[in-house]
Structure formats: C-alpha cells, structure tokens
Amino acid sequence: MNYIKSLLLLSILVLAACNNSKTEEATLEMASEENNSGIIHLSKAQFENAKMEVGQLTEKPFAETVQTSGMIDVPPQSRAVISAFAGGYIKNTPLLVGNKVSKGQRLVTLENPEFITMQQNYLETAEQLSYLKSEFERQKIMFDEKITSQKSFLKAESEYKSNLARYNSLKKNLEMLNINPASVQAGNIVSAVNIYSPIDGNVTQVFVNTGTYVSPADKIMEIMNTDHIHLELKVFEKDLLQLKKKQEILFTVPEASKEVFKGEVHLVGTSIDPNNRTSLVHGHIDEKDEQNFTAGMFVEAQIVTGTSDQWALPENAVVEMEGKHYVLKIENETADEFEILPVEVKIGATYNGFTVIGKSEKFKPETKFLTKGAFVLLQEEGGGHDH
C-alpha cells in the first residue's frame, strides 16, 4: 500500500507541475507513518491548478449484452470474381491490387485466334440466314397456293429455323465476349476482346500476369465494393432468443485498435449450424465508421439486449495498479485542503464512460471521490515516464 501511496502522491505533484510551471512547489505531504492512515493531503490551490474534479457514486444504466465474434464482410452483390467466357491469353492488364474501378471500366484485354473463327462463323451464318429466310417465305406462299409439296415447305422451314437458332447462339457468344455483332457484320473482325467491370469498387486480388493463358473456369481478378460493408457475427444457440432487429452492437477490431465502434442488428439467422450450434447475425455499421474497415477483418462484439441500473463512477476515477483497482476517496475537506484515501475496489463493466463500482460498506451515498486528476499520470509514473 505504501508503494501505491507514493505513486499517487508523485503523480499529483507531477500533474500540478505540468499544468502550472510557475506555481510554487507542491505542498502536498504524506500523512505521518506513525498514524499509518494512508491519507494524502491535497491543497485547494493544487486541486484547482491541476483542474481536478470531485464526484459521487451515481446510478447509471449499464448494458446487458451477448458476447459474440465474427468478421467484416460485404453483400454478395458487392463482390465480383472476374473470369472470361472463352479461353485466351492476357494481352494487357493495367490494374493493381487497391486500384479503384468504375462499373463498365476495362479490366483486361484477352487475345485468341479462336475469336476470329467465331466471328467468321457468325458472318457466314448471318449470310445464310438471309437466303434461308427468303426461301422459307417463298415456299410458304407456294404451299398455301398448293403449288409446292408439303415436304418442300417443311424442309425450307426446318433449314431456316435451324440456321436462325445457330445465328442467335453465335450472336449471344459474341455479346458475352463484348464483341459487337453489328460491327462484325460491317466487316470489323477483331482478335482481342476487353473484359469490363460489372460493379464499382476496388481491385482486391489479381490472379494473372500479361501473357498468362486463362480458361473459362479461371479467375482473373476480384473486385469488391465496400460501400455497404457490414458485420457477420456468429451467435450461440443459447443466446439466440435474446436477439432482435435494431438492437445496438458494440464491437472492436482487436488486431487494429481498442476503439469501440457501433452498429445495429439488421437480420437474425433462422437456422443453426449443427457443427458448432451457432447462427449468423447480420449487423449494419454506423455510417460514420464504415470507412474505417475492410472486408475480412476479425471483430469481437457485444449485442446489447437490455440495461440495468448500477452504482458507478466516471471511468477516469478508477486506476489499476499491480492488478488491483483503486479509487481516491475524499475523507475530509477543509477550507484549505482535501484529505484523500486510496481505497481498493472491485469493479464491473465500463459503459458510456462510467465504470461499475462493487458494493462496499466503506462508501455512503454522500461519499465523494476524486474523479479527475492524478490518475491519467499514475501508470506513467509507475512505468518511470519522464516529465
């Protein structure tokens, strides 16, 4: 306890010096060791110069929560894996991971002699179609007038419809390769095709280099739009009935920051994974925080299911030393000074800037505490920080 008293005293001295270098040397002194009271004497002048504050235990609402974890993700429509509808060699790929792209922007150029063959087949089929259509219409008129046989008419009809199906199939293939059929019919044959982005977003992965051969099953790159980033949380079966839409979510990204971010429950899963007895909860992130994250980040989260009133002090009124927690109780106040006693306490949750203080017969409703002051420097002094 003497170690704690010494650190508290030293911290108050340092804080006062930092706040007012022109103030005379602090007049604090530890109570005599003979009375072994542990009292710290703090002058009113030092209290005011250090901008300290005094407060009392207050009943505050504290969240009742369900603990969970999960990850940051995006909706399926905000993620696109780019591949080709036909095999070919990568002629040009100007983008790198992280590049921003717009819907319809060229991503890569693919080259293959087979593209020329496909266009030639389309041209030939288009030319045949014109002739077969005329022949079919001629045979139909002659059949209606009973000039030709039904066999000749049906043969012309079959050839025309078969060629029409082939024409439409080849036309669709060209459109899927981003080749304009009208341009081909005008005589413009190309050996390379462009692949365009289906969404706005950022390039997150590139799987090819210039000269790489890709088949229709191969991934070329991945694009992700993080405008609608959200939380995907796994909740245990035993907690599921406590959850409902619009409940507040408090979450952290432990690998990146201790900051607490907010969101809310949007959808609660209706099925249980039989392997781990969990269900998925979909949460929306506050708009002001969305830009802080990227898909794939691991999160730890608390879903607020209700509140209960607890006795609490501002979180800055509690300091941890050597694994124990202390508050500074105002034992006595005179016109000139405060008499302060460090008291070990058991604490509970911290929520909205307040920390739950465990019940103690040492405290009465009117008991006062130092709620702002030496505590911000206490751990620094304990670690030997130089001021």
TrEMBL record:
Keywords: Signal, Transport. GO terms for molecular function: transmembrane transporter activity. The keyword Signal applies. GO terms for biological process: copper ion export; plasma membrane copper ion transport. InterPro entries: Beta-barrel_RND_2 (IPR058792), MFP_Cation_Efflux (IPR051909), RND_pump_MFP (IPR006143). Residues 1-16 form the signal peptide. GO terms for cellular component: cell envelope; membrane. Residues 231-304 form the CusB-like beta-barrel domain. Belongs to the membrane fusion protein (MFP) (TC 8.A.1) family. This is Cation transporter. It comes from Aequorivita aquimaris.
